[in-house]
Design brief:
With 299 residues, the protein is an alpha/beta fold. The chain contains 8 helices and 15 strands. Bound molecules: flavin-adenine dinucleotide and FE2/S2 (inorganic) cluster (FES).
Length: 299
């Protein structure tokens, strides 16, 4: 099934507004068809889809932390972070939790099925600006998905960073993502990985408690440290408080925000956060720059 009339009218308008040569050839709103190559069940409601473009168009370049708009033909379009390795640009990986009509249609797309992709959009993690520092990554639930490309990048350029620490919290052991990656990362001597669950179930022998309880169990240099944080807003709020308590500077904390989106390129205003648009100025923000806006509303 093809995108509907309204969708194409919207795209055409956006391309006229954009007016760039890129827009003339399809531009930032161009939906490219991708085939699902692999579908991996991560948890009961979350799947990772490995996608490939049928056109040999030079692969898919992206920056860790960026997102795409994924279009389930005839159902709708949603923003989803890119969760794969930025160095492997022949395929594109997304990890999606089925919460509604569109995400359900996306995760139910079997290998050989087609999805529309436009992007990559937004500002990602500042991985190139934080070289020479300790890096503390704090992820909650599916928040590990947008952070995984950053972890791949840090490990691929490991010598450029100080300590690298991953603190990951899930609600239950069954909701932990990327078991294979976590096992591989745990086996490295140059990456510290701590995982915790809010509620243990049978057989769980690891940490119990919210992810913030892990922060004061690891050692890093707060004055020379960058923190990358992604998860539910309530988890980010408590994580920010704990990091600041540990003397990490607000300007050295990056957070990834979510808002409802339509255009994905700063035209429609759906994703406004204070004077910024999450799709264009985020989703990754320096905490210092959005602190005031975040404090005005309940996170
Ligand atoms: C920049 C960005 C990156 C994202 N990356 C991912 C990702 O990597 N993987 C992923 O699974 N999801 C991601 N999301 C969230 C995803 O876009 C939403 O889950 C999706 O839009 C829901 O659409 P739907 O039509 O399936 O459900 P809807 O019918 O729109 O919503 C179903 C239920 O989910 C709730 N919901 C909708 N959107 C969100 C949200 N953003 N956060 C929490 N609850 C929500 C609704 O309130 C409702 O209760 C991202 C969102 C943004 C803005
Ligand atoms: S989604 Fe349209 S401005 Fe951000």
């Amino acid at each position: 099934m093809q995108p509907d009339y309204n969708y194409w009218m919207f795209m055409e308008t956006a391309q006229k507004i954009d007016g760039s040569p890129a827009a003339a050839s399809g531009g930032p709103m161009l939906v490219r068809p991708f085939l699902v190559r692999r579908r991996v069940k991560e948890t009961a409601d979350t799947y990772s889809l490995e996608l490939a473009s049928p056109a040999a168009d030079g692969g898919f370049q992206f920056h860790p932390g960026q997102f795409n708009m994924l279009y389930a033909y005839g159902v709708g379009e949603v923003p989803i972070s890119i969760s794969g390795d930025p160095a492997k640009n022949r395929s594109l990986t997304h990890t999606i939790r089925a919460v509604g009509a569109v995400t359900r249609a996306i995760v139910n797309t079997k290998p050989g099925g087609q999805l529309g992709i436009r992007g990559p959009y937004g500002v990602g993690w500042p991985v190139k600006d934080i070289t020479g520092r300790d890096v503390v990554i704090v992820a909650g639930g599916i928040g590990l998905a947008p952070l995984r490309p950053a972890i791949h990048h840090l490990l691929a350029h490991r010598e450029k960073y100080g300590k690298v620490i991953l603190l990951y919290g899930a609600r239950t052991p069954e909701e932990i993502l990327y078991h294979k990656d976590l096992a591989k990362w745990r086996s490295r001597f140059d990456l510290e990985v701590l995982v915790t669950v809010d509620r243990a179930t049978d057989g769980w022998k690891g940490n119990i408690g919210v992810v913030t309880t892990l922060i004061n169990r690891v050692q890093f240099e707060p004055s020379n440290c960058a923190a990358l944080v992604c998860g539910p807003e309530i988890m980010m709020r408590f994580t920010l408080m704990e990091l600041i308590e540990q003397h990490v500077e607000e300007g050295n904390i990056s957070i990834s925000m979510e808002r409802n989106m339509k255009c994905g390129i700063g035209l429609c205003g759906h994703c406004q956060l204070g004077p910024t648009f999450v799709c264009k100025d985020g989703p990754v923000y320096c905490y210092r720059n959005v602190k005031d806006v975040l404090q005005k509303r309940e996170l």
